[in-house]
Write a structure and sequence with these properties.
- By secondary structure, the protein is of the alpha+beta class.
- It folds into 2 domains: about 290 residues, 3-Layer(aba) Sandwich (Rossmann fold), CATH 3.40.50; about 425 residues, Methanol Dehydrogenase, Chain A.
- It contains 13 helices and 44 strands.
- The strands form 10 sheets. An 8-stranded mixed β-sheet has the order 37-38-40-39-41-42-43-44. Strands 1, 2, 3, 4 and 5 form a 5-stranded mixed β-sheet that branches.
- The protein is globular, with a radius of gyration of 25 Å.
- The two termini are about 40 Å apart.
Length: about 750
């Protein structure tokens, strides 16, 4: 789940962008104060107005970045001047659209849904390799900006749905997918050329299939050759894949949206990789055993290396890295990763070095992730970052100098920035302050941008020279939250223990006992993701508001969540219905022993997606612990989720039926004894509305009372500010109704 139950950090701020268009029949308690929610909703959690997607120019004289206004969810393009420290707006959507409304095709909406993008305007941009030109897309049109003159040119591309534009490495042309084929636009001649042919809705060229976008973090389906003369592209054949329809009950006059949705044990998309000249000609198909390795997980075509691809078995226990000859299609195996449970997919490696020195790879063969230097043949040459360091993700890579930056976890609640060199020596920590550090580099640029968020500080972005010295800060126009969350982070419980966080009311009374609300995710995540318990202020803002309504909010990261090593993350395999819930209960009880203000006789639980699943599981299986639950968009029956995510953790339905039965909420529907509020978007194309309907039907047939709130026309994420305000009011009210006030 992005993985849809592997959500991005924005979704991990559970319910941060989830809406509610329906009301339960119960009156909302009058002591809910929604004043804060209005500001939080309109500022998107006080994140609007902060700079994002910063890219230094190659000459180091400027940084380009995107930023919205504090209460306008529409991104504009800015430039920060290194010499003066001043910033200026380069281009706004209003300048381009000239009063017209931004229009998104269904395909672009779906792509943004997979990428968890909920704002408008310029959601992405590209800088040419020499830094002279900027490529932007808006309302399905392409625009080229000359940095020197600020001149804006709309490219005269053909009619159709245009997605995924990319500069050629030489900057002289642009490729993109138009409908279902790859095209190239020559910037010198202003001529558009079709590169692939025969693309249809069923057989697509250059587009990443659903599971690649949702579960592999791969959003593109084509790749330029380093010399700009060829393009490698994915062909995805959807023949035999189930078609699911998303119909909006609120708009019966509109036809349903059809989507190919591969479910566990059923047909997947058939994928192959081809190479074609941008000037036309026959495609050379890359050869590998597609029956054994049906998943194309990663493709790279680096300047100093061959066309390289990673392919994976259906059971995901084996991944092979292949070197491909684009002239013949033949492949050579560089390395093979195997795991008795599953092999994780990454997009930050491999990265090829200059002068035939091999490539950098990340492996989980030891107790955790380690960064490795591999020879040209694939043999390991040296471990650059040991698993004990907690490698998280590669941030920069200089193929010539062999120096690069990466992030690593001292513990799962934070990440730090490191530098390492092939010349030898241990990785050097560049940051120390507790929180989440990341960085943005541009190969060859003498400057870079660091981003940082702490438990008591909102995100900021600073510009640094290569020696680490500070140049300045990218300006923010965001509003500041009216409070700093009162968060205490701890490690609790026996043996390895659980990382946990408590959010107490701002007017906390140590002499009172408080009902507890558990904010849960609890599921497996991508190795570069973070769990719920992170040292970030933005993560706990809404939790603080809930706490201020008369609760202590608790977050716990149990087995299966990232950052705790190989065995910890694999413990959840084939035990969805037990391990996540057992760990929440164990951690909660350990907290209750340490903090007497927690009233464990009055505990509620809420979450979204996988967190919604665990929330519903809590009241179904452990009514002795959880007295009420709010479950948002829960996957209730894993037979109805996608192949790549579900089969990774539960196996195939034919060979592991017990795992699917143990993990299904339908198995326990007849055991409901506690209040349960189900919330689900009727247009969700990730965790389909079908999930909540199936659980509602099972509960109804079992004679159980429950609440169901359909979110009219909403998908898996809903950024409507009014909806956000109403949602949190409903959540707080629900728990106040069923858990009571402090001291009761």
């Amino acid at each position: 789940m992005r993985s849809s139950v592997r959500l991005t950090s924005a979704i991990l701020c559970l319910f941060n962008v989830i809406g509610l268009h329906a009301a339960s029949g119960r009156p909302e308690p009058q002591w809910v104060n929604t004043q804060y929610l209005r500001d939080h909703a309109e500022t998107r959690g006080f994140m609007l107005g902060r700079p994002g997607k910063a890219i230094p120019t190659p000459d180091g004289q400027a940084v380009l970045f995107l930023r919205a206004q504090a209460r306008v969810p529409r991104l504009e393009l800015y430039e920060f001047d290194v010499a003066t420290g001043r910033s200026r707006v380069l281009l706004t959507p209003e300048q381009v659209l000239q009063g017209a409304e931004e229009q998104l095709s269904p395909e672009e909406k779906a792509r943004r849904e997979r990428m968890r993008i909920s704002v408008g305007g310029f959601t992405d941009f590209q800088l040419s390799k020499d830094g002279s030109r900027i490529l932007l897309s808006l309302s399905g049109k392409l625009y080229l900006v000359e940095r020197a003159t600020s001149a804006v040119q709309q490219l005269n591309t053909g009619a159709g749905t245009l997605v995924d534009p990319k500069f050629a490495p030489d900057g002289q042309s642009i490729a993109y997918v138009l409908d279902y084929d790859v095209f190239v636009f020559d910037l010198t001649t202003q001529i558009e050329r079709r590169v692939t042919t025969g693309g249809t809705d069923k057989v697509r060229h250059g587009l990443a299939e659903f599971v690649a976008q949702e579960e592999m973090d791969r959003f593109s389906g084509y790749w330029w050759s380093p010399d700009s003369k060829f393009i490698a592209y994915e062909e995805s054949d959807h023949e035999g894949v189930e078609i699911w329809h998303v119909a909006d009950p609120a708009k019966p006059d509109e036809p349903p949206h059809a989507a190919y949705y591969p479910r566990p044990g059923k047909n997947n998309v058939k994928v192959r990789l081809g190479v074609v000249s941008v000037s036309g000609g026959e495609t050379v198909w890359i050869q590998w055993d597609g029956e054994r390795y049906p998943y194309l997980t990663t493709v790279r075509w680096d300047k100093h290396g061959p066309l390289t691809l990673a392919v994976q078995t259906r059971d995901q226990r084996e991944l092979v890295l292949l070197e491909a000859d684009p002239q013949t299609g033949r492949t050579t195996t560089l390395l093979t990763e195997r795991d008795a449970a599953w092999v994780c997919v990454r997009q930050d490696v491999p990265r090829w070095l200059a002068d035939g020195r091999g490539f950098v790879w990340a492996s989980e063969k030891s107790a955790g992730w380690q960064l490795e230097w591999r020879k040209r043949s694939g043999e390991i040459q040296r471990v650059l970052a040991e698993a004990s360091l907690g490698f998280r993700s590669l941030q920069s890579f200089n193929a010539e100098t062999g120096e690069f930056h990466f992030t690593a976890r001292p513990d799962p609640t934070q990440t730090q920035l490191f530098r390492v060199s092939l010349d030898g020596g241990a990785p050097v920590a560049l940051t120390q302050e507790a929180g989440i550090h990341s960085a943005s580099f541009n190969e060859g640029s003498p400057i870079h941008v660091r981003s940082f968020v702490a438990l008591q500080a909102m995100p900021k972005s600073t510009v640094h020279r290569s020696d680490g010295s500070l140049v300045g800060e990218l300006p923010s126009v965001a509003e500041s939250p009216p409070f700093v969350p009162r968060v205490e982070m701890t490690r609790i419980g026996p043996d390895e223990g659980f990382y946990a966080a408590l959010v107490r009311p701002q007017k906390f009374n140590s002499k009172q006992r408080y009902p507890v609300v558990v904010n849960v995710y609890g599921g497996p995540l991508h190795p570069s993701s973070s769990g719920i318990v992170t040292a970030t202020m933005s993560r706990w803002l809404l939790a603080q508001w809930i706490a201020d309504q008369g609760f202590i909010v608790v977050g716990l990261d149990g087995r299966g969540t990232p950052g705790r090593g190989h065995a910890w993350e694999r413990a959840i395999g084939k035990r969805f219905g037990s391990v996540p819930l057992d760990d929440q209960v164990a951690g909660l009880r350990a907290l209750g022993k340490k903090y007497r203000e927690l009233d464990l006789n009055r505990v509620g639980i809420y979450g979204w997606s996988y967190g919604g699943y665990v929330s519903a599981l809590g009241v179904l299986r452990r009514p002795d612990v959880f007295k009420a639950a709010v479950a948002g968009a829960p996957p209730t029956d894993w037979l109805d989720y996608d192949t790549h995510y579900t089969e990774r953790y539960l196996g195939l339905p034919d060979t592991d039926p017990e795992a699917y039965a143990e993990g299904s909420l339908l198995t326990y529907a007849a055991e409901l004894q506690r209040p349960l509020l189900l919330i689900h978007g009727t247009s969700d194309d990730n965790v389909y509305f079908r999930h909540s309907l199936k659980l509602a039907d099972a509960l109804f047939r079992a004679g159980k009372d429950f609440d169901l709130l359909p979110l009219s026309s909403m998908t898996h994420m809903t950024p409507d500010p009014v909806v956000t305000e109403r949602l949190y009011s409903r959540i707080a009210g629900y728990f106040q109704t069923h858990l009571g006030k402090p001291g009761q």
